[in-house]
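Lecture notes, part 5. Sequence design as translation. It can be helpful to think of inverse folding as translation between two languages: the language of shapes and the language of residues. The source text, in structure tokens, appears below.
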């Protein structure tokens, strides 16, 4: 715990509305310690990220139907994901700058509206090329929402609880994923495939309701906002690429290695998130309902992994948590992709630890990237590094798509394990930040 006196700490009532020091005791102490304003910020970021996940997964869950409707091979189908993730890098970097210049909450609303509007537009696409363009534009909002929401909550959270607080925000991804899987099962069971994929995209209008609530109820953390507004470097790309000197440390090294870390983790994750539904249906021969059942184990593991990883990142430290789950995730990916045909029961069971490990590694990202950058460029740094990693990591799902015709989807999933190896190596260039106050 920080030794900063209560009267001077950024985590006291002046900053976040947190109450007495005893409020941070108990299993949900991290939530009580946020205070009323912090809890509203948490709810807004949680809902935004859950619906971000929902809108993202409308595509992977519909890919088999899309491929049949437009007559696509695996390579052209995989391009949907690559375009989304590449453009999301632009959206994320821009959203980070916007968050530093006009505030976290306003930037959050902009990103949510953007991904919702273009997800719905995807449902009206008449051609493959049009759908590709709409999906790319959806990536603009998709790329920015997580970074902005994570920073908003990080600036309310105490150093003691920041890992588990941001881990809980990450868990909302599994909630949105689960909601998408449920809607997918219902829609594809009762609606013909040619229309079902369109219906899936149309349901992406749900986030509009969240924006109305956020606009009225959520505000930036007061002291962090004041510090950001005082700075003359807020939202500066030059600042995050400034080399260090003997007199003053720069952020260039941090930015480069944080990009590599994000590339590895997201390359591994999106390889699995994009291709596991197709793998289950085409190579394991599962029906729509059967695929939904297998995804239930994967998503359940993911939800618990996010929460567990959040606690471990506070206990073990940011770097150790990521190292641990990079190793375990790589092992699980290789095991999952190489289960012999006919052993579908084992595949079902292994889905839980796979989802657990590939999600627990993300739990420390929100706190870690927030702690690596000072307040005036926190949005810029986190938005750029996280989404650059997402864009470069997008190459991994595309490689799987092009190699799937020869290797099979299961064989090509090995690129997920390579991504996790890259993440582990990137940590060698980054410091430990556990316990750091966001001053």
């Amino acid at each position: 715990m920080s030794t900063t006196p209560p009267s001077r700490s950024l985590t006291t009532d002046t900053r976040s509305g947190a109450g007495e020091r005893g409020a941070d005791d108990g299993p949900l102490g991290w939530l009580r310690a946020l205070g009323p304003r912090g809890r509203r910020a948490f709810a807004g970021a949680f809902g935004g990220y859950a619906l971000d996940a929902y809108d993202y997964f409308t595509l992977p869950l519909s890919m088999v139907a899309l491929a049949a409707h437009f007559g696509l091979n695996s390579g052209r189908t995989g391009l949907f994901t690559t375009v989304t993730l590449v453009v999301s890098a632009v959206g994320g970097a821009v959203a980070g700058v916007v968050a530093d210049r006009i505030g976290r909450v306003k930037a959050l609303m902009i990103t949510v509206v953007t991904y919702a509007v273009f997800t719905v537009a995807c449902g009206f696409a008449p051609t493959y090329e049009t759908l590709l363009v709409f999906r790319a534009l959806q990536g603009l909002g998709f790329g920015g929402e997580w970074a902005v929401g994570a920073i908003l909550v990080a600036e309310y959270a105490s150093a003691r609880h920041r890992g588990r607080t941001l881990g809980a925000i990450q868990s909302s991804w599994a909630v949105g994923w689960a909601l998408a899987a449920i809607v997918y099962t219902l829609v594809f069971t009762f609606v013909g495939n040619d229309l079902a994929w369109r219906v899936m995209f149309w349901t992406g209008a749900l986030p509009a309701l969240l924006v109305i609530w956020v606009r009225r109820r959520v505000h930036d953390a007061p002291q962090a906002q004041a510090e950001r507004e005082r700075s003359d470097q807020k939202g500066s790309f030059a600042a995050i690429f400034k080399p260090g000197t003997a007199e003053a440390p720069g952020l260039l090294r941090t930015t480069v290695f944080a990009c590599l870390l994000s590339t590895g983790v997201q390359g591994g994750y999106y390889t699995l998130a994009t291709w596991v539904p197709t793998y289950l249906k085409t190579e394991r021969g599962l029906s729509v309902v059967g695929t939904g059942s297998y995804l239930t184990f994967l998503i359940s593991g993911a939800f618990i992994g996010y929460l567990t990883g959040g606690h471990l990142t506070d206990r073990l430290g940011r770097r150790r948590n990521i190292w641990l789950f990079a190793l375990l995730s790589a092992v699980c990916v290789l095991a999952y992709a190489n289960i012999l045909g006919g052993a579908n029961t084992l595949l079902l069971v292994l889905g839980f630890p796979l989802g657990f490990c590939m999600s627990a590694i993300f739990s420390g990202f929100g706190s870690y990237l927030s702690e690596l950058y000072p307040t005036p460029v926190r949005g810029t740094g986190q938005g750029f590094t996280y989404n650059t990693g997402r864009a470069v990591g997008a190459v991994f799902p595309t490689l799987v798509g092009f190699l799937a015709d020869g290797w099979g989807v299961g064989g090509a999933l090995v690129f997920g394990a390579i991504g996790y190896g890259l993440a582990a190596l990137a940590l060698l260039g980054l410091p430990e930040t556990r316990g750091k106050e966001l001053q």
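The translated text above is only one of many valid answers, since several sequences can fold into similar shapes. The radius of gyration is 21 Å.
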